[in-house]
């Protein structure tokens, strides 16, 4: 199986890994900005999102991303990951640190992080809605939690469309014997400069994760955005575009 992807522009490569609330379309505002700044922008749909179905059998997503990059002739690159995409970015950078020149993590998840009360309550509510067949209700639950006060109606609708599509793909594959291959990341081996971005209006877990990683990653700095929720690249795209351009240029 091949991960669905697209590539835009020329120059030093940047890989964009989306939040698992969305798919690669969440990066639409960043693609033009980063390509215009002289980067080759590669973005993929993770398993069960966008154009990438849920595969049968064992599947190593991080290794497949590496193979995809090999096919594009990309050896070294910067990686930008949001939420669940940040979790994949950490695994990739930990397994192949020599390939990663810079790492930007926006409200990143972290494998093994124990969910706090708010996140645990959300997970239980989402599961109950899906078990009851109320997919629309589960979509609304996600939109309400993950977008901060800066998100306008158009942004909320974009996230609603992406989350609904992800649920449709994943629910249709409930009987597919998918066996993901996952490796615990070792942040200490990641030598690339790392930017950890969190939002003041996000669930507290993600700030806790960022602060934890800031103490483990050798070249990390943490930036808290007082206006942001969980998806700042959609909430204030121009501000995040400028932040990423400056970080990658440095």
UniProtKB/TrEMBL annotation:
Keywords from the named record: Hydrolase
Domain AB hydrolase-1: 14-242
InterPro entries: AB_hydrolase_1, AB_hydrolase_fold, AB_hydrolase_sf, Epox_hydrolase-like
GO terms of molecular function: hydrolase activity
Keyword presence, Hydrolase: yes
Gene3D superfamilies with a match to the protein in the record: alpha/beta hydrolase
A Pfam entry, by short name: Abhydrolase_6
Coiled coil: none
UniProt keyword annotation of Hydrolase present: yes
Protein name per UniProt: Alpha/beta fold hydrolase
Lineage: Bacteria, Bacillati, Actinomycetota, Actinomycetes, Micromonosporales
